[in-house]
Amino acid sequence: MIPQTLQITLSVAIVCYFIIILYYLKKRMLELKYTLVWLVAGLVMGIMIYFPELLVYFVGIFGIQSNMNGLYILCIGFIFMILMTLTSIVSRQQLKLRILIQELSMMEKRVRELEEQIGSEPSGPEKSDYGKDSD
User: How many domains does the structure of the chain reveal?
Assistant: First the structure.
């Protein structure tokens, strides 16, 4: 059983955790679809504070030797879940970025071809200016 003072301290920490997540959500520093994993992790932590016998049950199901080892395995599982979520987000963003770069390159080529057709000088920085460091 968890001592009363520890249970109160952990409860305050979980409330602060949710306040921070909701603050970031409100300020649009995080999107809802990305915060769901964090909210689920906080919910599980809150449940474990008030129902520690669930951890004992979890440890018994998987045949883990001690409760602390089961807690560590549960935490590592959440860390892996969060890492996989973040990795999939990064992968999707990288694909979108690659598509945008390709579309921009095609549009720049099209603009140059149209400028050549009408015989005007290119306006703005030329392709050779991109990627150079300014001195």
Answer: 2
